[in-house]
Amino acid sequence: MEGRHRERREEGEEETIHEQARERGEQRDGSLKPKSGIKMEEEDEGKETELMKASPRDEAQSQLINGHTPISASSSFTSFPFISSPHQGRGGEDEEEVRVAILTVEDESCPSEPFGTTQFEPTNEDNGQAESGGEGKEDGEMEGEEEAAEEENEEEEAANAEEREEEGELASPEAHLQLKMKRKLDHGPDGRPFPSGKKHCKGNGYLSPSSLVQATPTTFGDLRLANGHSAQRRRVTSGPPPSGLQDWLHTFQMWSGPERLLALDELINRCETSQVKHMMQVIEPQFQRDFISLLPKELALYVLTFLAPRDLLQAAQTCRNWRTLAEDNLLWREKCREEGISECTSSRHRRSSAAVSEWKSTYIRQHRIETNWRKGDTREPMVLKGHDDHVITCLQFSGDLIVSGSDDNTLKVWSAITGKCLRTLTGHTGGVWCSQMAATTVISGSTDRTLRVWDAESGECVHTLYGHTSTVRCMHLNGNRVVSGSRDTTLRVWDVSTGRCEHVLTGHLAAVRCVQYDGRRVVSGGYDYMVKVWDPETEVCLHTLQGHTNRVYSLQFDGVFVVSGSLDTSIKVWDPETGGCVHTLTGHQSLTSGMELRDNILVSGNADSTVRVWDIRTGQCLHTLQGPNKHQSAVTCLQFCRGLVLSSSDDGTVKLWDLRTGAWLRDVVALQSRGSGGVVWRIRASDTRLVCAAGSRNGTEETKLLVLDFDLDEKKKETD
């Protein structure tokens, strides 16, 4: 320590290379990282001999790193501190070539406690030097009090040196450089001194330049390596490289960033299409990122909610991770909600795989059914023959059971799956003209003036309801009650489970032709041109809705509005609470034979062969379903489901229309005898099935039921 203090006080003193090496060995463990080396030749044998006289301690610390020895921070940069020669020991008898390596210190990081992004890995040689340095330290270790005093002296000397530098006392460039180097060694990269007792570079080995790792890619080649691609990308093998290529590349590297961009812009303008394509093939893959896989699951799912279901199915084929995300059950539940699908029905016909989202299966199934409805397939409808040549007057189906009533006094129960007639319900003595069905309970009304309650599974007649004095022409079932209307001008309210008549509603002046019951109010229409609103519990007629000028043939009641269709060609919308007429819908030219009301949208079928779509809140006609594909005869029946309108006609067809646009989609059923006597009398539709009752009035078409199942793909998989 005294030698170091003396060196700082004697400003400008010329020291020999041997003294510098010795002092460096006492003060530092020599852990500075060499940044660069310069080889030089020297023929001065006197200096070579002087270096050979160094102490064993100096020789131990002078071992080379990659063939060079690091320069001391306190050494002069104008001299050559370390010289290696293959002929040392000859005492300078022969002149030998001498190689000198000058290593500069530029990095402020400490190898033992690295800063910044540069990482260091000591080599085996460095570990050996660290061990030898550690032994020297152990031999010369001072007591704790002396070491503390020495640190205080060092701090005082450093402070004095800084003052002298500010006052211009360090006039010598060499002394000034030595002070700067000491600051780099004694302070971290932020300028703060290392904590006492934790001196840097003690006991650590030297670092080789090859151990440095560049953390941040700066060139395109570095980017390729960072992305895990080989540095040897595909090269153009059209021939040897052009002359002057390396000079051109060197010139490019010497330019600034804006100059390089300008040069690249000019270069691209001069490239042919194939050359630009080659550049794109090399560059584009390096900037592609699978951002979905990099995002947290919640954010990735949120992004996927913006995709259409068809795009989600395609995204699932990208990779395993995307497939896992695209199969998310909640994601597909949201897609089902957007399409108005509120019930998960994927396991209705088969068990869903645990690996597949149930809501996804539901969506796919509903989409397939919708496609089958709109576009159809090559399958022929299932034909159910019965009732001989009689007219099928009423049609119901529930689940997999179909019930048809005829003027042959019977009802038949059919399997919608096999098409077989399961049983024939006999007991009526007159033609069956109306029916209702809930689950396996069937209620029928006949010209024999009775109603019968049947168990469709067993075929048993549970109750026979007597009371009407003429044909039972219409009925409506709600819950455990059924309301029947008769040509005897009365309505009766029956308890289905007991078969008891609970209430009789009288007030019409002619036959009751149609009835609706929502569980609270009864609405009836008759041949007396009137519509009546009843309270069935008190048997009081609350309102008589007068306005039609002819028989009322059809009714709809949703609890808010009453809609009536008449032979006078008009349709009227009523308020059942006040009895007032809200709208009169005009446009049809004949009898409105059937209507369907849902969500304030009314669809009406008329004997004028047209179908109209109305908004009953405004009274506006939204669409008239006609055109070149319209019906050629009277519309006999209507069904309204899945945003589709189904209409049957005396022309022997069942047509499918788009409710939103009013466009004709296709003919779902077309009888061979259409136009020559074939008639479709009744139709009933669910989400997956359509049942049609067809025949003829002149014998050209035998009486039958046609069953179309639009969920056959699902059932076919189950059967297979």
TrEMBL record:
**Name of the featured protein:** F-box domain-containing protein
The family database entries (SUPFAM superfamilies) matched by this protein are listed as:
F-box domain (SSF81383), WD40 repeat-like (SSF50978)
Please name the source species: Astatotilapia calliptera (Eastern happy)
| InterPro entries with a match to the protein in the record | F-box-like_dom_sf, F-box_dom, WD40/YVTN_repeat-like_dom_sf, WD40_PAC1, WD40_repeat_CS, WD40_repeat_dom_sf, WD40_rpt
Q: Which GO terms describe its molecular function?
A: ubiquitin binding
Key words, A-Z: Repeat, Ubl conjugation pathway, WD repeat
Q: Does the keyword Transmembrane helix apply?
A: no
Mention any Pfam family matching this sequence: WD40
Q: Which domain of life is it from?
A: Eukaryota
Extent of Low complexity compositional bias? 69-86
Gene symbol?
FBXW7
- Any one GO CC term of the record: cytoplasm
